[in-house]
Amino acid sequence: MSTKKSIDYKLYLVTDRNVLGNRDLIQSVEEAIQGGATVVQLREKNCSSLDFYNLAIKLKKVTSKYGVPLIINDRLDIALAVKADGLHIGQEDLPLTVVKTIVGDDMIIGVSANTLEEALLAEKQGADYVGIGAVYPTDTKLDADYLTLDDLRSIRKAISIPIVGIGGINEKNAVEVMGTNIEGVAIVSAILGKQDVKQAAQELLRKINN
Amino acid sequence: MSTKKSIDYKLYLVTDRNVLGNRDLIQSVEEAIQGGATVVQLREKNCSSLDFYNLAIKLKKVTSKYGVPLIINDRLDIALAVKADGLHIGQEDLPLTVVKTIVGDDMIIGVSANTLEEALLAEKQGADYVGIGAVYPTDTKLDADYLTLDDLRSIRKAISIPIVGIGGINEKNAVEVMGTNIEGVAIVSAILGKQDVKQAAQELLRKINN
Ligand code: NI
């Protein structure tokens, strides 16, 4: 039996310690949820498994309190350890087919796809949603290849599972991204990098909903 | 039902890419097994999950060919993904109690312990073996606290599960370490750092067996 939740992908918050500066990650995510974030992905790199686990446990308490799904980036062991709602894997993480043999259908699995082919394969292999991007160049990946809105529309027509746009999405371009008929936008610095995190989430949600 | 193998911990090889230089990890481990390594722990840091997985899959083929158990360091997700025989966790990795809730008794779980208290707790929480050390200072941890042979003897008397000595053990001191009545020695550079890996393993095993 699947224990998956039905997820609202609309305002998909991805954590990034680097944009938070000295501010507390857990408290900032709680403010983002209060502002309207509909799903939270915890993304940590270069920390010990114990630190990742302890952080995920704390974050799970917050997301559970608000009934918002928690998705862990990359690390299936952490996702299993904290009984997260989902796992998000990139093309450099464990293969989707391998993950599925371990968790079956009991966890939401999202896959990052940068091309139509990767998106089609992810759907075929049983991904619950795909993160498609980068839609716009980001500060950290200035020279990365990115997709056009037309690319997003083409992928939207080609697959049936939910699509979240990823990469450089902010209050200025979120509306046109959602205009491609995808289910949500993944936001990092346009929420967590703002002075008032809750207000930033509120304004983004308001624009998307209009 | 437990699918655990009964493990011979005597000559416990731990991989380290840094001591291999340009040599191939998989081939070097195969030579070490041919020389007498009785168990192999794959330890990788700072590589993508996909790279870790692909390496572990390749290594599993070699260890399976020789009937030698493969233990994965730190990463339970990788251990599950490649159906490794075991997982070795340190004090900065996932807590043993959490790991046990996920894998039950179907995987060998080893725990690094640096004190008698940590060793007692690991045994109480269901560890299958403990790695105790560092027994001698290593090149990479010159100023780390290390245990004396008397410390090893005290821990040996206090717990019942197998003990593997870890840290700075080589052909010069392996015999005195085994003299504390522990089950095995964990070796890194004294095998993988030698020009003739197979011969290094053979000589270590011969000394230990004498
Ligand atoms: Ni189910």
TrEMBL record, chains A, B:
<feature type="binding site">
    <location>
        <begin position="41"/>
        <end position="45"/>
    </location>
    <ligand>
        <name>4-amino-2-methyl-5-(diphosphooxymethyl)pyrimidine</name>
    </ligand>
</feature>
<feature type="binding site">
    <location>
        <position position="112"/>
    </location>
    <ligand>
        <name>4-amino-2-methyl-5-(diphosphooxymethyl)pyrimidine</name>
    </ligand>
</feature>
<feature type="binding site">
    <location>
        <position position="168"/>
    </location>
    <ligand>
        <name>2-[(2R,5Z)-2-carboxy-4-methylthiazol-5(2H)-ylidene]ethyl phosphate</name>
    </ligand>
</feature>
<dbReference type="GO" id="GO:0009228">
    <property type="term" value="P:thiamine biosynthetic process"/>
</dbReference>
<comment type="pathway">
    <text>Cofactor biosynthesis; thiamine diphosphate biosynthesis; thiamine phosphate from 4-amino-2-methyl-5-diphosphomethylpyrimidine and 4-methyl-5-(2-phosphoethyl)-thiazole: step 1/1.</text>
</comment>
<comment type="function">
    <text>Condenses 4-methyl-5-(beta-hydroxyethyl)thiazole monophosphate (THZ-P) and 2-methyl-4-amino-5-hydroxymethyl pyrimidine pyrophosphate (HMP-PP) to form thiamine monophosphate (TMP).</text>
</comment>
<comment type="similarity">
    <text>Belongs to the thiamine-phosphate synthase family.</text>
</comment>
<keyword id="KW-0784">Thiamine biosynthesis</keyword>
<keyword id="KW-0460">Magnesium</keyword>
<dbReference type="GO" id="GO:0009229">
    <property type="term" value="P:thiamine diphosphate biosynthetic process"/>
</dbReference>
<dbReference type="Pfam" id="PF02581">
    <property type="entry name" value="TMP-TENI"/>
</dbReference>
<dbReference type="InterPro" id="IPR022998">
    <property type="entry name" value="ThiamineP_synth_TenI"/>
</dbReference>
<dbReference type="InterPro" id="IPR013785">
    <property type="entry name" value="Aldolase_TIM"/>
</dbReference>
<dbReference type="GO" id="GO:0004789">
    <property type="term" value="F:thiamine-phosphate diphosphorylase activity"/>
</dbReference>
<dbReference type="InterPro" id="IPR034291">
    <property type="entry name" value="TMP_synthase"/>
</dbReference>
<feature type="binding site">
    <location>
        <begin position="138"/>
        <end position="140"/>
    </location>
    <ligand>
        <name>2-[(2R,5Z)-2-carboxy-4-methylthiazol-5(2H)-ylidene]ethyl phosphate</name>
    </ligand>
</feature>
<keyword id="KW-0479">Metal-binding</keyword>
<feature type="binding site">
    <location>
        <position position="74"/>
    </location>
    <ligand>
        <name>Mg(2+)</name>
    </ligand>
</feature>
<dbReference type="InterPro" id="IPR036206">
    <property type="entry name" value="ThiamineP_synth_sf"/>
</dbReference>
<feature type="binding site">
    <location>
        <position position="73"/>
    </location>
    <ligand>
        <name>4-amino-2-methyl-5-(diphosphooxymethyl)pyrimidine</name>
    </ligand>
</feature>
<keyword id="KW-0808">Transferase</keyword>
<feature type="binding site">
    <location>
        <begin position="188"/>
        <end position="189"/>
    </location>
    <ligand>
        <name>2-[(2R,5Z)-2-carboxy-4-methylthiazol-5(2H)-ylidene]ethyl phosphate</name>
    </ligand>
</feature>
<feature type="binding site">
    <location>
        <position position="93"/>
    </location>
    <ligand>
        <name>Mg(2+)</name>
    </ligand>
</feature>
<dbReference type="GO" id="GO:0000287">
    <property type="term" value="F:magnesium ion binding"/>
</dbReference>
<protein>
    <recommendedName>
        <fullName>Thiamine-phosphate synthase</fullName>
        <ecNumber>2.5.1.3</ecNumber>
    </recommendedName>
</protein>
<feature type="binding site">
    <location>
        <position position="141"/>
    </location>
    <ligand>
        <name>4-amino-2-methyl-5-(diphosphooxymethyl)pyrimidine</name>
    </ligand>
</feature>
<feature type="domain" description="Thiamine phosphate synthase/TenI">
    <location>
        <begin position="11"/>
        <end position="191"/>
    </location>
</feature>
<dbReference type="GO" id="GO:0005737">
    <property type="term" value="C:cytoplasm"/>
</dbReference>
